Amino acid sequence: MKRKTRRLWLVIACVAGLGAAAGLTLSAFSSNIVFFMTPSQVAAKVPPADRTIRLGGMVVAGSVHRERHGETPVNSFEVTDGQAAVTVQFEGILPDLFREGQSVVAVGSMTPSGGFAASEVLAKHDETYMPKEVAEELQKSGKWDPKFGPPPNAASWNAMTAKDAKTSSRGS
Amino acid sequence: MNASPTFMDRAGALFHRYANPGRFLKLGATLQPWLTWPAILLTLCGLGWGLFFSPADWQQGDSVRIMYVHVPCAWLASSGYAALAVCAVLSLVWRHPLADLAAVEIGPVGACVTATCLATGSLWGKPMWGTWWVWDARLTSVLVLFFLYLGHIALIRAFDDPQRGYRAAAILALAGAVDLPIIKFSVQWWNTLHQPDSITLTGAPTMSHAMLWPLLVSTLGFTFGFAAIVVARLRAGVMEHRIRSLLTSPRRGTSVNATLAESGAQELAV
């Protein structure tokens, strides 16, 4: 291969790589800049039943119903953003992090009855990282119930270690 | 007004001083152990602390320990590209010869940490989120950063005349720097599956101190490691560059062997 051709191909490869990068960006940013819709957005403008959307929000405490139809688990739960709630139906295994009060993203489409049929459920965890003992202590002392929302202001507990949690629970 | 020109003069003198590769080689040789040893010690401490002695997360359990590799790599992926952009400005505006050589050496190291960041993120995402990959703004913009690194690596080596490659790659590095704020703010601007930052400049970290400290130590260790690898590669690059220019010099026929031997002896002494 002549030097010129090699150079030409390298330049073409670069341009193709950049083009792919830019294309991916554009495709991702045109339809996916917002990764999910919130229940109030869905309530304001109901998307057509044939369109696949992602619905994101918090699982409402006490709304989770799990059944088994033969081998497949059938789940139904409500997802809320504080203003509106949508009932989600999902057949399959939920991710480990799924619980009441957890943020989730459900992929699927609206049903004519106003519910949401999900083909996939993803769990979204928040930016809080907390040792188990601290979380248990906060729950025991009644400062926080994970079923009803995010943990309290981090400044109140982020210096707490497992040891502190144990001593304070022994004291109380 | 009296102080500022003196400062500028001094900064300019310092800046031009290391345009001389020989001076840089001396500085690099002094700097190298001060980068390499802290890198090894801090990384071992941080990873040991994080992987074995820090507490597990209340909901993620032990999977949270991927963080002690993922976060330093993510930080270095962005910082490395910012360093490329700085080199690009130095190269385009001042034609600083060391900046061009540095850009050649930073690229592959940055691409490696970005690949590690993406891989560890994917391994973390599967058990926690329930998926290896989603096209949300944070993940996509980091993938774009990886492609930018690959493009830079290919472009800077694509020309027979290295100067043309340096210039083209510098333009790419500058253009690609647009991606850095997109990565940083993607989690605030748009709904993403990726959670927002736990450590911010403005607020208290939303992370237990028992996890924060090992993360900081490990990040510092990785950063020293990145710098140590780049400086080592840069020193090798400068020597390689010298040898190549000696071999292609017009005096080649007469005294190249003597010059090469002399130069080699100098390098070894350094």
From TrEMBL, chain A:
Protein name according to UniProt: Cytochrome c-type biogenesis protein CcmE
Bilayer topology: Single-pass type II membrane protein
Family (UniProt): Belongs to the CcmE/CycJ family.
Pfam families: CcmE
Compositionally biased residues, Basic and acidic residues: 163-172
Topological domains annotated Cytoplasmic: 1-7
Chain positions covered by the region annotation Disordered: 138-172
InterPro entries assigned to the protein according to its UniProt record, in alphabetical order: CcmE, CcmE-like_sf, NA-bd_OB-fold
Coiled coil: none
Entry keyword Transmembrane: yes
UniProt-annotated location(s): Cell membrane; Membrane
Organism listed in the record: Acetobacter sacchari
Lineage: superkingdom: Bacteria
Positions contributing to heme binding: 125, 129
Function: Heme chaperone required for the biogenesis of c-type cytochromes. Transiently binds heme delivered by CcmC and transfers the heme to apo-cytochromes in a process facilitated by CcmF and CcmH.
Keyword Membrane: yes
Segments on the Extracellular face: 29-172
Signal peptide: none
Keywords in alphabetical order: Cell membrane, Cytochrome c-type biogenesis, Heme, Iron, Membrane, Metal-binding, Signal-anchor, Transmembrane, Transmembrane helix
From TrEMBL, chain B:
Sequence similarity: Belongs to the CcmC/CycZ/HelC family.
NCBIfam families assigned to the protein according to its UniProt record, in alphabetical order: ccmC
Alphabetic keyword roster: Cell inner membrane, Cell membrane, Cytochrome c-type biogenesis, Membrane, Transmembrane, Transmembrane helix, Transport
Record-annotated membrane-spanning stretches: 34-54, 74-94, 106-125, 137-156, 168-190, 210-234
Pfam families: Cytochrom_C_asm
Cytochrome c assembly protein domain: residues covered: 35-194
Function field: Required for the export of heme to the periplasm for the biogenesis of c-type cytochromes.
Subcellular location: Cell inner membrane; Membrane
The protein's name: Heme exporter protein C
Membrane topology: Multi-pass membrane protein
